[in-house]
Amino acid sequence: MRMQPILMLVAGVLLAGALQPAAAQSKLDEKIDSNINDWVGTYKYLHEHPELSTEEKNTAALVASELKKIGYEVTDHFGKYEDGSPAFGVVGVMRNGAGPTLYIRTDMDALPVTENTGLPYASKAREKRANGEVGVMHACGHDLHMTVFLGTAKMMAESKDQWNGTLVMIGQPAEEVIGGAAAMLRAGLYTKFPKPDYVVALHDTSVLPAGAVGWHAGPMLAGADSVDITIRGYGGHGAIPNITKDPIVVGAELVVMLQTIVSREADPLTPTVVTVGSFHAGTKHNIIPDEAHLQLTVRTMTPTQREKVLAEIQQMANGIAEAAGIPAERAPIMEVSKENVPATINDPALSERVAKSLEKGVGKENVWPGQPIMASEDFSLFALEDPKPPICMFWLGATDPAKWKEAQEKGTRLPGPHSSEFAPLPEPAIRTGVKAMTTVATDLLHK
Ligand SMILES: [Zn+2]
Ligand SMILES: [Zn+2]
Question: Would you state the pLDDT for residue 20?
Fold first, then answer.
C-alpha cells in the first residue's frame, strides 16, 4: 500500500509556555543547528562500536556519562535478568517542579550481523561464538535511537523554562533478546524512580524517508510467542511402518494444517502469523523415529487472539495425532516459551497528543500514517507494570530520501532493520528525531 501524507486538524488550543510555540520551535532549530555535528559524531562512534544484547557495558557507560554531563541524576547498571545477573540499564532523572512524569526510552543493543554497508564508519566488530566468529552491527538502528535520545535529553535540559514535571530518561539494554525491559522493571524501575504518567519511544524504519515520522494509534507491533511441539509416535524399521506410529508424517500434516489458522480460523481483520521455523526428526533413512520436534513463532496483535491461536495449535496437534492412531498417553507435548512478549499497543489518547506534537515539531507534511508491523518489542512491557502508564512508540524515517523516492518509482529494494545493508541517513534523521521527541516531551510536560 502506498502511503499518503496524513491530514490532521491543527490543534485548536496552543499550549501556553514562556515562549509562543512558533518562537520556541525556531529556538529549538537554532540549538539543534549548533549541536548537530556533535550528534552525527556520536552516532558514527556508536555505529562503529556496537555491543550485543546484555553486553552493552561501554555503550551504557557512554549514555550514562553523557546524561550526567547534561545534568541528570544518573543510576547505571540498573536491572536484573531472570537468572539474577545484572543488566546495564541506565536511568537519568531531571526534576523540574510539580507536574507529570514522562519516561523516554531508548534501546542500546546491537545484533549479530556482519555489516555490509560499505560506509566509512561501518562496524568491524567481531565476537567469538561457539560456532565461530560473528560480526556485530547496529543493524536495528539503536545507535540512531540513542543519539536522538541524548540530543533530546540535552534540549530538554536547556529549556527548563518551557516545561514542568519530571523527565526520566531510560537506556534499556537487551531489547533484541527481549529481556532488558523486564530486567529494569523487575529491579523496581517504577518504584525506585518517580512513577510514570507516560512512556514514549521511537523506532527507526526504512519504510519512511529520513526527515519524516509516522504514528499509529492502537496495535503497533505484534506480540510474539515461541512454541515447541514434540510429536510422539512409536518408532521402528522404515520398511515395517505398519507396526509403528510415524511422528514425521504427523508432523508434516501438522505443518500444513497450521497454515489454515491464518487462512481459515483467524479473523481476517486481525493480523496473525504462524511460522514453523524448524522441524527436526530422525537419524537415518530406514528408521522411523519415536519423536519429531517443531519450533514455531506465533505473532498476534491482541491477548484474545493470542489465546485463541495457541489453543488452535494445541487442538490441531492433538487432533492429527489422534487421527493417526497415537494413544492419548503419547499425545503431542506443546510448550509455550516463558520469553513471550505481548503486542505493543499505543494508547489511543496519548497517540493523538503525540501526533499533534509531531506536527508542531517537524511540520504536518512530514508526519505520515505509520503502519503497524508484525515484529515485536519489549517496549510493550512498560505499559503492563503498575501504574500501567499509557505508552506510545512512533516511527522515525531513516532512509536516504533519494533512495526512498527511487524505490517508490522503480520498486528498487530498500534494506531495512536487521539487514546487513541497513544504512540510516544520520542527517536529517537525527535532527528530525530530536525535534520530534523534544516537542513531544515539552508538550506532555506542559506548563
Ligand atoms: Zn531489532
Ligand atoms: Zn530495534
Answer: 61
